[in-house]
Amino acid sequence: MSILSVRGATKIFGTQEKQALELLKQGWSREKLAKEKQATVAVNQVSFDVQEGEIFVIMGLSGSGKSTLVRMFNRLIEPTSGEIWIKGQDVAKLNSSSLRQMRRQSIGMVFQKFALFPHRSVLENAAYGLEVQGVRKSERMEKAMEALRLVGLEGWEQKRPDELSGGMQQRVGLARALANDPDILLMDEAFSALDPLIRRDMQDELLDLQQKMKKTIIFITHDLDEALRIGDRIALLKDGEVIQLGTPEEMLMNPADDYVERFVEGVDLSKVLTAAHIMRRPETISVDRGPRVALQLMRDIGISSLFVVDRNKKLLGVVTGELASEGARRNQSLQEVMITDELPLVSPDVVMNDLFALSGTAKLPIAVVNADGRLLGAIVRGAVLGALAGHVPNADNQAAPASVQAEGAHESELPLTITAEGGVER
Amino acid sequence: MIGKSPIGDWVESAVNFLTVHAEGFFEGLSTILEAVVNSFTWMFQLGPFWMLIAILTIIAFIVGRWSLALLTGIGLLMIVWLGYWEATILTLSLVLTSTVLSILIGVPLGILSGTINGVSKVLRPLMDFMQTMPAFVYLLPAVILFGLGIVPGIIASVIFAVPPTIRLTDLGIRQVPQDMTEAANSFGSTPWQRLWKVQLPIALPTLMAGVNQTIMLSLSMVVIASMIGAQGVGTEVYRAVTQLKIGQGFEAGLAVVLLAIILDRFSQRLIKSNHARH
Q1: Given its phi and psi angles, is residue B45 left (phi above 0), alpha (psi -120 to 50 degrees) or beta?
Q2: Tens digits of per-residue pLDDT, A381-415?
Q3: Subunit contact B183:A119, Cβ cutoff 8 A
Q4: What CATH code would you report for A275-425?
Q5: Is B197 in Cβ contact with A101 (below 8 Å)?
Q6: Which helix (DSSP H) or strand (DSSP E) does residue A375 occupy?
Q7: Architecture field, domain A2-106+182-267
Q8: What are the pLDDT digits (tens) for B190-218?
């Protein structure tokens, strides 16, 4: 369900906003408006929907209009035109008291330079949003404390913001926004002022928090790595227009134009490609088959091992050629001969960087399984290196980790299984 | 040839108009201000002089430790020794009254001017005018409107001393980082909440620097106002000057200087402790 719908949001800075808007609609270019009317088109007819619970990244270089755009969502900047729907209300049309209500209850904001109040303690900062709502002191302090605990700042609540490091200050900023329990969190370059290492930590923590709290996060950044790491979807902004919107993988695999391509060129693939990208269709056998069927199948396909799965495609074990023929000699069932211990398993969203060690040592193909233990794919030896060299087997069918995680999203990738009739089907 | 300018005539008729038509207002204001000054003087003279000095020294110690306490104690004793204690009390009362009045007028105006550009555009030239017009000039209309005495002195010194408070309040408000006002807005503050909880506290050190200057300016003006009957150390200075008594003039002047230094250090100290709390 979409929680925020932006329709034709436009912001023009200048003395004659409305006139400039008309001219823009008549087809004047940005450059012409700037030159002849001294009007700057900061955001130009932007439309998109943000789904509840996703991390939506708005990315762009400085001057692309991303900060202006995000400020239109809570009207720190008045839109020149367009609609911004949050929870059934068009923010752009709210009167000042309804707008205040919306800001208090539905939208929290985290700022690039933290914007903490220097004269207030960490706790008082975190309680600010509740304070202006008139929440009783004991209650707001309790809630603020809870928010501080959530971001790992217990024990620091009586300090002044300037006694804290940058990373900790931004945690206060985050706690201040979370204390109100808003539905949407706007994060304007929230981690850009932090050191790279602390930045990584904060990104990870944000993802953890997101898992726990299921907030909708709109995250502004100019850093592609950051966008790829945390974004469920990314909108790339240039000159105030969205030039591509999609999952991180779509951005990388199919850049919409030269601009996006140049943007994504420098990306380190090993940090971006995941197990889901490089896995192949696994060769499997149902556990109720016998070792002889397994042997026959291996011979037919020309491989040395098979994944053993149950009816629900849940991975039970692996059977190799040797084990199968031994089982066939002793008349054992597949259940008895298969290897079940220390199978090399990974989840589909593991990045390649973390696959190197495993793929170097594993003797069996690596099984890619989802949280329920269902087998999604296999990574055979060489696939990891092959992918680094530019050969990505799944590039054409757009396997995205985010969607693989979703239940049954990719039926086409279900493991090959032998059915009761003995035929092979997907 | 250009004729003689009529501006002087306009000002005169304006003042005359006010005298005739707003007499009640000025009388009421006069009564209030006199009462305020008198209650300050009354408060300062509740006990013997050494008690007041002791109390002020203790406060000085609390606010600014040994250096300020020493300065206050010794400075005030020296004023007693010079023989201007009573006069200084009166001057101090006048300064405090006009400072309080300046803050009451200056801070709200400064806030308006810092928030609304139009207000600042009007106020700025007006304040330049107020500060550069020779201070004596205010004394005349003040006398005509309020008669001789302490009240016109206070009015004149407020006009002369209020601009720094306005200017620095304006500056303080404008210097509040934009993202902090944005943060205040983004959490749904009303304009009042934003002002009280965010803008004013952050602007406070700058604002206090303005108040410090206002105190010093009103002291200097109160001394000048002795010419129109505002009693105090200034009266002694003025008398010494008119009678060419060099020694007495120097001594009275010294009392003013001592009071000025103490007031200055006191208010400076308050600004610093404010900073430290941040």
Answers
A1: alpha
A2: 777 766 666 555 554 443 333 333 333 333 333 33
A3: no
A4: 3.10.580.10
A5: no
A6: strand A375-379
A7: 3-Layer(aba) Sandwich (3.40)
A8: 999 999 999 999 999 899 999 999 989 88
